[in-house]
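Handout, page 2. Input:
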Amino acid sequence: MSRRTAALLTAVAMALTSCSANDGGHPAASPSAGTPPTARQQLASSAPPEPAASEAPDQALPVRVRKLKLSRGKDRPLPTTIWYPATGDGPYPVIVFSHGLTSRPEDYASLLRRWARAGFVVAGAAYPHTSRGAADFTVLDLINQPADASYVLTEVLALNRKRGDPLENRLDEEHVAAAGHSGGGVTTLGMLSGNRDKRLTAAVVLAGRQLLPAAFQGPPLPVLFVHGKLDKTVQYADGLAAFNAVPRPKALLTLPQGGHVTTSGPDFARVTTTTTDFLRWSLYGDASARRRLAATNNLRDNL
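Output:
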Protein backbone atom coordinates (compact mmCIF):
# COMPACT_ATOMS: atom_id res chain seq x y z
CA MET A 1 0.00 0.00 0.00
CA SER A 2 1.39 3.42 -0.91
CA ARG A 3 1.80 6.15 1.69
CA ARG A 4 -0.78 8.26 -0.15
CA THR A 5 -3.36 5.48 -0.04
CA ALA A 6 -2.69 4.75 3.64
CA ALA A 7 -2.98 8.43 4.51
CA LEU A 8 -6.24 8.84 2.62
CA LEU A 9 -7.79 5.77 4.23
CA THR A 10 -6.65 6.88 7.67
CA ALA A 11 -8.11 10.34 7.12
CA VAL A 12 -11.59 8.92 6.61
CA ALA A 13 -11.35 6.16 9.21
CA MET A 14 -13.34 8.04 11.85
CA ALA A 15 -16.00 9.03 9.35
CA LEU A 16 -16.53 5.54 8.00
CA THR A 17 -16.10 3.48 11.17
CA SER A 18 -19.83 3.60 11.89
CA CYS A 19 -21.14 2.83 8.42
CA SER A 20 -23.51 0.07 9.53
CA ALA A 21 -26.92 -0.37 7.98
CA ASN A 22 -28.45 1.00 11.18
CA ASP A 23 -26.22 4.02 11.76
CA GLY A 24 -27.33 7.62 11.49
CA GLY A 25 -24.06 9.15 10.34
CA HIS A 26 -20.92 10.90 11.59
CA PRO A 27 -18.74 13.81 10.42
CA ALA A 28 -18.19 13.94 6.70
CA ALA A 29 -15.13 12.61 4.91
CA SER A 30 -12.79 14.83 2.93
CA PRO A 31 -13.23 15.19 -0.83
CA SER A 32 -11.78 12.46 -3.01
CA ALA A 33 -9.46 12.86 -5.94
CA GLY A 34 -10.87 12.60 -9.45
CA THR A 35 -10.10 9.99 -12.07
CA PRO A 36 -6.71 10.46 -13.78
CA PRO A 37 -7.31 11.94 -17.24
CA THR A 38 -5.55 9.07 -18.98
CA ALA A 39 -7.86 6.53 -17.37
CA ARG A 40 -10.94 8.60 -18.15
CA GLN A 41 -9.91 9.03 -21.77
CA GLN A 42 -9.29 5.31 -22.05
CA LEU A 43 -12.74 4.53 -20.70
CA ALA A 44 -14.48 7.13 -22.84
CA SER A 45 -13.00 5.58 -25.97
CA SER A 46 -14.76 2.27 -25.31
CA ALA A 47 -18.30 1.74 -26.52
CA PRO A 48 -20.79 1.33 -23.63
CA PRO A 49 -22.26 -2.18 -23.51
CA GLU A 50 -25.88 -2.87 -24.30
CA PRO A 51 -27.61 -5.15 -21.77
CA ALA A 52 -28.46 -8.47 -23.36
CA ALA A 53 -32.17 -9.16 -23.56
CA SER A 54 -33.30 -12.21 -21.60
CA GLU A 55 -36.47 -13.16 -19.81
CA ALA A 56 -36.70 -11.65 -16.35
CA PRO A 57 -39.11 -13.23 -13.84
CA ASP A 58 -42.59 -11.73 -14.13
CA GLN A 59 -43.50 -12.30 -10.48
CA ALA A 60 -41.81 -12.31 -7.08
CA LEU A 61 -40.05 -15.58 -6.31
CA PRO A 62 -39.75 -17.37 -2.97
CA VAL A 63 -36.27 -17.07 -1.49
CA ARG A 64 -33.93 -19.47 0.24
CA VAL A 65 -30.85 -18.59 2.29
CA ARG A 66 -27.68 -20.60 2.69
CA LYS A 67 -24.25 -20.13 4.25
CA LEU A 68 -20.82 -20.87 2.82
CA LYS A 69 -17.62 -21.14 4.88
CA LEU A 70 -15.21 -19.42 2.53
CA SER A 71 -11.69 -18.26 3.27
CA ARG A 72 -9.08 -16.48 1.15
CA GLY A 73 -6.16 -17.75 3.20
CA LYS A 74 -6.00 -18.65 6.87
CA ASP A 75 -6.16 -15.03 8.04
CA ARG A 76 -9.01 -13.99 5.70
CA PRO A 77 -12.14 -15.96 6.58
CA LEU A 78 -15.09 -14.85 4.46
CA PRO A 79 -18.27 -16.45 5.81
CA THR A 80 -20.78 -15.82 3.06
CA THR A 81 -24.56 -15.65 3.02
CA ILE A 82 -26.41 -16.35 -0.23
CA TRP A 83 -29.99 -15.30 -0.96
CA TYR A 84 -31.35 -17.07 -4.04
CA PRO A 85 -34.66 -17.89 -5.78
CA ALA A 86 -36.10 -21.12 -4.41
CA THR A 87 -38.06 -21.94 -7.55
CA GLY A 88 -37.45 -21.81 -11.27
CA ASP A 89 -34.51 -23.05 -13.28
CA GLY A 90 -32.87 -19.73 -14.07
CA PRO A 91 -30.20 -19.06 -15.01
CA TYR A 92 -30.14 -16.12 -12.62
CA PRO A 93 -27.65 -13.22 -12.71
CA VAL A 94 -25.30 -13.02 -9.72
CA ILE A 95 -24.68 -10.04 -7.41
CA VAL A 96 -21.77 -9.90 -4.96
CA PHE A 97 -22.64 -7.49 -2.13
CA SER A 98 -20.24 -5.69 0.22
CA HIS A 99 -21.36 -4.42 3.64
CA GLY A 100 -20.36 -1.16 5.31
CA LEU A 101 -17.85 -0.82 8.14
CA THR A 102 -18.95 -2.33 11.49
CA SER A 103 -21.78 -4.10 9.69
CA ARG A 104 -22.55 -7.59 8.35
CA PRO A 105 -24.42 -8.91 5.27
CA GLU A 106 -27.49 -9.89 7.29
CA ASP A 107 -27.98 -6.24 8.26
CA TYR A 108 -29.01 -5.68 4.63
CA ALA A 109 -31.23 -8.77 4.40
CA SER A 110 -34.40 -6.79 3.64
CA LEU A 111 -32.84 -5.28 0.51
CA LEU A 112 -30.92 -8.37 -0.59
CA ARG A 113 -33.95 -10.60 -0.18
CA ARG A 114 -35.93 -8.22 -2.43
CA TRP A 115 -33.26 -8.58 -5.10
CA ALA A 116 -33.39 -12.36 -4.81
CA ARG A 117 -37.20 -12.26 -5.12
CA ALA A 118 -36.74 -10.34 -8.38
CA GLY A 119 -34.59 -13.11 -9.87
CA PHE A 120 -31.03 -12.61 -8.68
CA VAL A 121 -28.59 -14.72 -6.68
CA VAL A 122 -27.03 -12.41 -4.07
CA ALA A 123 -23.88 -13.31 -2.13
CA GLY A 124 -22.51 -11.22 0.73
CA ALA A 125 -19.40 -12.01 2.80
CA ALA A 126 -18.54 -10.71 6.27
CA TYR A 127 -15.12 -9.15 5.78
CA PRO A 128 -12.50 -10.27 8.31
CA HIS A 129 -11.25 -6.89 9.54
CA THR A 130 -14.11 -4.43 8.93
CA SER A 131 -17.26 -6.31 9.90
CA ARG A 132 -19.13 -5.94 13.18
CA GLY A 133 -17.41 -8.01 15.86
CA ALA A 134 -14.05 -8.23 14.07
CA ALA A 135 -11.37 -8.85 16.70
CA ASP A 136 -8.78 -6.70 14.92
CA PHE A 137 -10.91 -4.10 13.19
CA THR A 138 -9.00 -1.79 10.85
CA VAL A 139 -10.37 0.53 8.20
CA LEU A 140 -7.12 0.17 6.27
CA ASP A 141 -8.20 -3.34 5.32
CA LEU A 142 -10.58 -1.79 2.80
CA ILE A 143 -7.64 -1.95 0.42
CA ASN A 144 -7.90 -5.77 0.46
CA GLN A 145 -11.65 -6.12 0.14
CA PRO A 146 -12.02 -5.83 -3.65
CA ALA A 147 -9.90 -8.96 -3.96
CA ASP A 148 -12.02 -10.61 -1.23
CA ALA A 149 -15.22 -9.82 -3.15
CA SER A 150 -13.75 -11.20 -6.38
CA TYR A 151 -12.75 -14.38 -4.55
CA VAL A 152 -16.28 -14.78 -3.18
CA LEU A 153 -17.66 -14.26 -6.68
CA THR A 154 -15.35 -16.98 -8.03
CA GLU A 155 -16.44 -19.45 -5.38
CA VAL A 156 -20.13 -18.74 -5.87
CA LEU A 157 -19.95 -19.02 -9.65
CA ALA A 158 -18.18 -22.37 -9.23
CA LEU A 159 -21.40 -23.73 -7.72
CA ASN A 160 -22.92 -23.50 -11.18
CA ARG A 161 -20.77 -26.47 -12.16
CA LYS A 162 -20.83 -28.38 -8.87
CA ARG A 163 -22.78 -31.60 -9.32
CA GLY A 164 -25.75 -31.85 -6.98
CA ASP A 165 -25.50 -28.29 -5.65
CA PRO A 166 -28.81 -26.39 -5.34
CA LEU A 167 -27.35 -23.76 -7.69
CA GLU A 168 -26.00 -26.18 -10.29
CA ASN A 169 -26.79 -24.84 -13.78
CA ARG A 170 -28.86 -22.01 -12.27
CA LEU A 171 -26.31 -19.17 -12.41
CA ASP A 172 -25.88 -16.76 -15.31
CA GLU A 173 -22.09 -16.36 -15.38
CA GLU A 174 -22.28 -13.79 -18.18
CA HIS A 175 -24.33 -11.26 -16.18
CA VAL A 176 -22.70 -10.38 -12.89
CA ALA A 177 -22.90 -7.26 -10.71
CA ALA A 178 -21.12 -5.87 -7.67
CA ALA A 179 -22.96 -3.74 -5.11
CA GLY A 180 -22.14 -2.25 -1.74
CA HIS A 181 -23.02 0.33 0.90
CA SER A 182 -20.65 2.94 2.34
CA GLY A 183 -17.33 1.13 2.95
CA GLY A 184 -18.85 -1.59 0.76
CA GLY A 185 -19.36 1.08 -1.89
CA VAL A 186 -15.63 1.81 -1.65
CA THR A 187 -15.05 -1.93 -2.11
CA THR A 188 -17.37 -2.04 -5.12
CA LEU A 189 -15.62 0.89 -6.77
CA GLY A 190 -12.32 -0.86 -6.03
CA MET A 191 -13.53 -3.80 -8.11
CA LEU A 192 -13.83 -1.36 -11.02
CA SER A 193 -10.45 0.24 -10.38
CA GLY A 194 -6.94 -1.14 -9.90
CA ASN A 195 -8.53 -4.44 -8.87
CA ARG A 196 -10.86 -4.45 -11.88
CA ASP A 197 -12.90 -7.64 -12.05
CA LYS A 198 -13.55 -8.15 -15.74
CA ARG A 199 -16.49 -10.45 -15.06
CA LEU A 200 -18.62 -7.56 -13.81
CA THR A 201 -21.27 -6.24 -16.17
CA ALA A 202 -23.00 -3.78 -13.77
CA ALA A 203 -22.52 -2.14 -10.37
CA VAL A 204 -24.54 -0.39 -7.66
CA VAL A 205 -22.89 2.03 -5.21
CA LEU A 206 -24.95 3.02 -2.16
CA ALA A 207 -23.62 6.02 -0.20
CA GLY A 208 -20.10 5.31 -1.45
CA ARG A 209 -17.11 7.24 -2.72
CA GLN A 210 -13.84 6.67 -4.56
CA LEU A 211 -10.89 6.13 -2.20
CA LEU A 212 -8.62 3.56 -3.80
CA PRO A 213 -6.04 4.62 -6.41
CA ALA A 214 -6.13 3.91 -10.16
CA ALA A 215 -9.83 4.68 -10.46
CA PHE A 216 -12.10 3.07 -13.05
CA GLN A 217 -9.88 0.85 -15.16
CA GLY A 218 -11.07 -1.13 -18.17
CA PRO A 219 -14.21 -0.85 -20.31
CA PRO A 220 -17.31 1.03 -19.09
CA LEU A 221 -20.31 -0.74 -17.61
CA PRO A 222 -23.64 0.46 -16.20
CA VAL A 223 -23.21 1.91 -12.69
CA LEU A 224 -26.01 3.18 -10.45
CA PHE A 225 -25.13 5.52 -7.57
CA VAL A 226 -27.60 6.16 -4.72
CA HIS A 227 -26.81 8.96 -2.28
CA GLY A 228 -28.65 10.95 0.37
CA LYS A 229 -28.34 14.73 0.08
CA LEU A 230 -28.06 14.99 3.89
CA ASP A 231 -25.44 12.25 4.31
CA LYS A 232 -23.04 13.32 7.09
CA THR A 233 -20.77 10.27 6.87
CA VAL A 234 -19.96 10.31 3.16
CA GLN A 235 -20.83 13.74 1.84
CA TYR A 236 -23.12 13.97 -1.15
CA ALA A 237 -20.38 15.94 -2.94
CA ASP A 238 -18.05 12.94 -2.66
CA GLY A 239 -20.66 10.58 -4.08
CA LEU A 240 -21.32 13.08 -6.88
CA ALA A 241 -17.58 13.29 -7.62
CA ALA A 242 -17.42 9.50 -7.96
CA PHE A 243 -20.46 9.55 -10.24
CA ASN A 244 -18.96 12.29 -12.43
CA ALA A 245 -15.71 10.36 -12.80
CA VAL A 246 -17.44 7.26 -14.20
CA PRO A 247 -18.03 7.14 -17.96
CA ARG A 248 -21.46 6.42 -19.36
CA PRO A 249 -23.65 4.42 -18.92
CA LYS A 250 -24.42 5.59 -15.38
CA ALA A 251 -27.19 7.01 -13.21
CA LEU A 252 -27.44 8.81 -9.87
CA LEU A 253 -30.48 8.60 -7.61
CA THR A 254 -30.49 11.55 -5.23
CA LEU A 255 -32.49 11.24 -2.00
CA PRO A 256 -33.28 14.88 -1.07
CA GLN A 257 -34.00 14.11 2.60
CA GLY A 258 -31.81 11.01 2.82
CA GLY A 259 -28.93 10.48 5.21
CA HIS A 260 -26.20 7.89 5.16
CA VAL A 261 -28.46 4.88 5.60
CA THR A 262 -30.23 4.20 2.30
CA THR A 263 -31.10 0.54 2.92
CA SER A 264 -33.72 1.10 5.61
CA GLY A 265 -36.02 3.86 6.84
CA PRO A 266 -38.29 6.15 4.81
CA ASP A 267 -36.27 5.83 1.58
CA PHE A 268 -36.14 2.03 1.65
CA ALA A 269 -39.04 1.45 -0.77
CA ARG A 270 -37.66 3.91 -3.30
CA VAL A 271 -34.11 2.56 -3.09
CA THR A 272 -35.38 -1.00 -3.42
CA THR A 273 -37.54 -0.21 -6.43
CA THR A 274 -34.89 1.82 -8.27
CA THR A 275 -32.01 -0.59 -7.63
CA THR A 276 -34.15 -3.57 -8.64
CA ASP A 277 -35.23 -1.87 -11.87
CA PHE A 278 -31.61 -0.97 -12.60
CA LEU A 279 -30.47 -4.56 -12.04
CA ARG A 280 -33.33 -5.96 -14.12
CA TRP A 281 -32.39 -3.62 -16.96
CA SER A 282 -28.60 -3.98 -16.76
CA LEU A 283 -28.51 -7.75 -16.15
CA TYR A 284 -31.67 -8.97 -17.87
CA GLY A 285 -32.16 -6.26 -20.49
CA ASP A 286 -35.70 -5.70 -19.16
CA ALA A 287 -37.19 -2.93 -21.33
CA SER A 288 -40.07 -2.23 -18.92
CA ALA A 289 -37.59 -1.70 -16.08
CA ARG A 290 -35.70 0.77 -18.29
CA ARG A 291 -38.90 2.72 -18.91
CA ARG A 292 -39.57 2.89 -15.17
CA LEU A 293 -36.06 4.19 -14.57
CA ALA A 294 -36.62 6.90 -17.17
CA ALA A 295 -39.69 8.07 -15.23
CA THR A 296 -37.99 8.04 -11.80
CA ASN A 297 -37.87 11.38 -9.99
CA ASN A 298 -34.46 12.73 -8.89
CA LEU A 299 -32.64 10.21 -11.07
CA ARG A 300 -29.83 11.67 -13.16
CA ASP A 301 -30.02 9.29 -16.06
CA ASN A 302 -27.04 8.85 -18.38
CA LEU A 303 -27.71 5.20 -19.15
